[in-house]
Design a protein that fits this description.
single chain; mainly alpha; 5-stranded parallel beta sheet; 26 helices; 9 strands; elongated
Amino acid sequence: MNGDEPAAPAERRGRRSMPLWWGPRVMFVGGAVVLVVESSRGVPLSELRRALYVFCACSAVFIVRQLWVGHQRGPGGDPPRWLVRAAAFLTAAGVLVLVAHLAGFEGDALPLVGSVLLLLGLGWFVEAWRGAKPGQQRNALLWWGVALCALTAVTAGAAAFLLPKVKGGLFLALLIALGLALFVALPLGLNVLSEWGVRRLRQRSSAAGPGAGVAIVGCLGIVSAVGAVALLGYLDWVLAAVLVAMALVLLLAIVSNTHADVALILAALCMLAAAPPERPKPQALFPAGGQRVLVAIGDSYMSGEGASSYFERTDDGGRNECRRSPSAYAVGLTTGDRRFDRVLFLACSGARTYNVIAKSDASFLQVQEGRPGTKIKAQGDEPGTQIDQLTSQASSFRPALVIVALGGNDAGFAILGEACIAPGGCEEQESVFKSNLPKVRGALAATFRSLRKALPADVPIVAVPYPQPLATAESCTGVALTKTERDFIHRFVDEVDKTMFEAATDAKAGIEYLAEMKDSLKDHQLQLCQGRKSKAGINFVDIASVNGFASQRFSPAKWIHNSLHPNERGHEAMRATFTTWLKNHPGLLEQRAPTAQGQATSQALPAPQPEPVCSMTSNAGNPHCQDQIRAWELEQTRGRWPWLLLVLLGLAVLWVASVAVFSLLPGREPPYRDPASRTRAR
């Protein structure tokens, strides 16, 4: 027993301090459990937000307690044994759960649960490490921090050099090593360096008096970062503002040693994987019995990708990713136009011509591809290609009009968006994209011919071109594209629309072409660069996850699918353009004299076009253009290393400012007394 104080008062003080030590920590862990459980269940976003509010409240209590009370220490200045043991248990459990997932054990929530356990365990290890008595560590924190940051730099450099040159298992191993370096080694290194810096500044301040100069420099750095966020937001560079704000908040959280960084990462992980809400299908989407049915065929520009919600079971990662939206203009035409009573909504995000053409007409496409091995296949768990689905249901309704938007994925729209957002000028790859358009023209003509064959000849078909997403403005705030890149995208979309028109003509199937749709966003002042990005009818970069298994929802590759697609405003403008066009073509929907089905298919298609250097689809025998474009992207990224160094320098200055600010807080470090140690003292 300590001779300086009676045993009974010490016992009472120990018992009174237990809620202070344990209460906030239990609240933090409990809030994390609630958030993880709700996120793993894939609940609607409104329910997940409630769980997030609970977690934020619990985290705030714990963070304030950490700032007010400080580190916990056991007897002799060592970290409390329970903290070290709990950290070891959580870390080991997280590793085991992740290994079980990689080994193939079933469990939708395993990736999330394993990641959260590992995150909490490493956070508690850092707390124990940073809470050890200063005299015991001396400069160990400095050397450990430098070593971990150097390891991250070496790994990142090796990955940047080797990733373009390797494939298969070595490529995957490099990605895993890079992930461990960026998300484990770097945060640990910054944590221990922060503790070293805070302690050194506190020592100097206590020796030389209050650190007014340090306070001014640190506060100026923080204020400058906040000003940069405000300026970027004012200039409509929303994504850049969010990134700078995230860097500022995360650095402050790491330096604070309050588990705020763990809370931020955990909340971001769970919210990024939040599935968009699903809507039940209305009666209008069941065409059976309809007498004036609109048939919508095509890709994401027809299905409505880019919206905030989708019909149930059409946004399931890894199973069905057609992303058919209630706000798609085809659905709006049916619900808001008396000329149609139902819609057969077959359009599917990512569709290429070989996902649409009937399997029985594979020869049409094989002639255009120039090889007999071209595969016709359905997407995901769809019951067949889009035309095969139309044929299988044709006897249950009467089609009034068929609208088709197709060819963008065959032309490489997705690859184009990726190349233009990446560093470098994507206009340098213009020849790669345009060299594929003759093949796209032939594939579209074959698909139009197959569609005409599947329909009565009196049913009109309308080919719908893609709307121009970008205005031809000299300057454009909020869109991270140069003028030459924007001009290239504008030219390429024009070329794809022209290719669709030529294919409709080549098919000789009496297909109409809705030329006015190209300017639908422009006419409604909804193009990017026509005004503020937040008011545009098309998303630039939009982050949203998918429904389905956790392994799909937590995959970053699934988070940007809404980017560069029309949103609800865009589809409303497209619906208005289509409605006006229908009014100007009153004879289109009039009853026509029926003719023999498939009459227009006897004409020969154009001869196959020369083989391009690479293919935009994985269904061809020549190399995939995506490999060539991504190799170019990596080269462009590596060539901009001076800018990367400038960004790293800015982050380093921001980190130093954060350390300076937190060094001014009182260094409360009361010892923690284990119950076992009090028992031994008695």
